[in-house]
Amino acid sequence: MEEGGRRSLVVLDASRRQLTGWFVRHRAELRLGVRVMVGGLLAFGVAHGLGLAQGYWAVFTAIIVMQASLGGSLSAALDYFVGTLGGAIYGVIVALIIPIDHLDTLALALAVSLGPLAFLAALRPSFRVAPITAAIILIIPGTQQTGVWDPAIGRIIEIAIGSVSGVLVSLFVLPERAHRIAAETAGTILGLMANLMPVLTAWGGGPRKLKRIAATQDGIRRGLIRLDAVVREAERERANHFTRAPSSEPLIRTLRRIRFDLVMVGRAVGPGWPKPIRARLAPPLDRVADAVRRFLIAAAASLRLSRPAPRADKVGAAIADYSAAMSALRRAGLTRELSDAETARIFTLGFALDQLRRNLEDLGGRLDEFARSG
Questions:
Q1: CATH top-level class for 178-373?
Q2: What are φ and ψ of residue 260, in 5° steps?
Q3: Rounded-to-integer distance, Cα 232 and Cα 16, Å
């Protein structure tokens, strides 16, 4: 009986840990869900409190503009409102010029509205809702024989209510700053880079190694695209004085340089190296890879926890040992018989490692900036 009770407690404890872990992993999504719920309800209440006939557009807008961060919500709200205002004004002008009380003239008014507005939306994504707004403003009066001003003004008011509701909720209900999301995203990228470094410096491996490298590099590329979008949101927060955090742009520039350094290392290391040279350089190169991997893992933890950057001394020492091994090779005359291509690869690797060391040191400065703002 006691044994069964202990097993039940173990199962319950394991379930509790799994549930807690799930909530931790998905806390950003859960916070966004709560904000969307509150924002939609707030817009609904305000619209009905003002007696708006079509208050559902306010709710739709609040849901649409709600993003993962405050900066994203600000950007989405501004774009949505500007697009709505532009589409409404243009739609009203067209309706005043072209009668919309007949089906054929209504079709002509739609064509005159949608073509130019769609072209404008292609040039300026902030106007992507302008064609929809113009179409609504033209179709409702045209099919219901009502004035064109009421739906135009009503839609602008409802969009304004939804936009303001979304921004206010993003600001006060479980607020999430883009600066913090940028740190988490950058930490994920650093983790991928840490996993990639030992794979790049390992000789051999064949197609399986190449497939693993390609998959990891693709993950890093997607992460940088995501980080670029988050950095733009963070800069909007800074421009509107919603945060005192430092700019995240230097961080993404440093990460891009590190990614390029890793590409250079991967291209330099390969099966074309002579075996005697590989035998001499493999041990110090392995130590470089391990030091870089450990530094990147520690750097990712520093970003997520807003802690000062780890020291890059071990990375510098490992690369210095590799350079010393290279110098010993030249003194021993082992590089004299190499082809131009082989010589180029050897010196390319040395250059790439030195650049990587410099960029990792620069990364440390970026991490310290994040730690001071955390």
A1: mainly alpha
A2: -65, -40
A3: 38
In terms of residues, how long is the chain?
Answer: 374
H helices present in the chain, as ranges = 2-25, 27-49, 56-65, 70-97, 103-123, 130-144, 149-172, 178-200, 206-239, 249-268, 275-305, 313-331, 340-373
Residue 262, both tokens: 């890793």
What are the CA-CA distances from residue 17 to residues 13, 24, 143, 198, 305 (Å)? 6, 10, 58, 32, 21
CA distance linking residue 187 with residue 300, whole number of Å = 4
Q: Please give the Cα distance from 227 to 193 (Å, whole number).
A: 15
**CA distance linking residue 47 with residue 132, whole number of Å:** 21
- Contacts by 211-214 with C-beta closer than 8 Å and gap 24+? 213/266
Q: Hey, which of 36-40, 60-64, 188-192 has the most confident mean pLDDT?
A: 188-192
DSSP 246-261: PPSHHHHHHHHHHHHH
Nearest residue to 232 (alpha-carbon basis) of 71, 32, 68: 71
CA atoms within 13 A on the CB side of 328: 12
Banded model confidence at residue 248, pLDDT cuts 50, 70, 90? confident
pTM of structure:
0.76
Residue 150 corresponds to which tokens in the numbers above? 């009421």
What's the angle, vertex CA 98, arms to CA 96 and CA 104, rounded to 5?
145
| Portions of the chain given CATH number 1.20.58 | 178-373
Distances (CA, A) of 265 to 57, 98, 213, 289, 324: 54, 65, 12, 10, 18
Of 296, 255, 276, which Cα lies nearest the Cα of 346? 276
- How far apart are the C-alpha atoms of 275 and 72, rounded to whole Å? 53
CA-to-CA separations, 342 to 159, 273, 349, in angstroms, rounded = 64, 7, 11
pLDDT attached to residue 333: 75
Q: In this structure, which amino acid lies at residue 281?
A: L
Give the residue from 122, 151, 157 showing the smallest Cα distance to 135.
151
